[in-house]
Amino acid sequence: MATPSPGVFDRLDWPVHTDRLTLRPARAADADAVWQYRRLESVAQWITELPADPGAFRARFTAPGRLATSLMVERDGSIIGDLMVRVEDGWAQTEVADTARAVHAELGWVFDPTHHGDGYATEAVRELLRLCFTELGLRRITALCFADNEPSWRLMERIGLRRESHTVRDSLHRSGRWLDSLGYALLAEEWNTRA
Predict the structure, then answer these.
(1) Which residues lie below 8 Å from residue 48, measured CB to CB, with a gap of 6+?
(2) Among 4, 76, 90, 132, fewest CB within 10 Å belongs to which?
(3) Which PANTHER family does this entry report, sorted A to Z (predicted)?
(4) Domain layout of the chain by residue ranges
(5) Which sign does the torsion angle of CA 136, 8, 104, 74 carry?
(6) Nearest to 86 by CA among 103, 99, 73
(7) pLDDT digit string (tens) for 116-138?
(8) Burial of 16 (0-12, 13-18, 19+ CB in 10 A)
(9) Nearest to residue 43, comparing CAs of 108, 128, 138?
(10) What CATH architecture does domain 8-194 belong to?
(11) Above 60 in pLDDT, residue 94?
């Protein structure tokens, strides 16, 4: 089982700027802004946890493990989305396990739907890939989604991730339906040939 590495963002210089966006580590004070879009049904239908109320969401959002893996995406000083980077150990045989520590990451993202269609998610996640491969020195990233979440897997394909799996009705959705899932990945050497 992979072991998350909290505090990985501590070795980077923040904030990071793209042409239109600012990325920075999450702070406890961001919880209310993030709640505003994560509570929307069009967003919540695809995320792991449906926030029950602002207080419950704030408690979960401000947990140390959560803050340690979250980045905020800002446009003109306003939060428009959040990113997850969960750095993990790669699977390895015992004799070489030390070499596989903190070399992989699972990525995730959620954006305020009022900012969909302007390329902000593409811009933010491309920068996240750059950070993962050049600044953090990771060798592999992965991203997962429900197959029905077409905007998410289209984003994965747009930024160059490779589809590695399509699992059939393996994920129970809160609607009570078993849904297909998609898994995407990218290796550092693949990213380097495209960058």
Answers:
(1) none
(2) 76
(3) GNAT FAMILY, PUTATIVE (AFU_ORTHOLOGUE AFUA_3G00765)-RELATED-RELATED (PTHR43792), N-ACETYLTRANSFERASE DOMAIN-CONTAINING PROTEIN (PTHR43792:SF1)
(4) 8-194
(5) negative
(6) 103
(7) 999 999 999 999 999 999 999 99
(8) middle
(9) 108
(10) 3-Layer(aba) Sandwich (3.40)
(11) yes
Does the pLDDT value for residue 42 go beyond 80?
yes
Q: Tokens 């992989």 belong to which residue?
A: 104
Q: Are 155 and 125 in contact (CB under 8 A)?
A: yes
Tokens of 14: 């923040």
What is the token pair recorded at 147? Answer: 């197959």
Residues 120 and 75: their CA atoms lie apart, in Å, by 9
- Pairwise pLDDT comparison (25 vs 65), residue with the higher score: 25
Q: Tell me the residue type at 121.
A: A
Give the C-alpha distances (Å, rounded to integers) separating 87 from 3, 18, 40, 104, 151.
8, 22, 28, 6, 24
Average pLDDT, rounded, for the chain: 93
- Report pLDDT digits (tens) over 20-40: 999 999 999 999 999 999 999
Nearest to 71 by CA among 141, 5, 123, 23: 23
3-state helix, strand, coil in the chain (%, to 5): 35, 30, 30
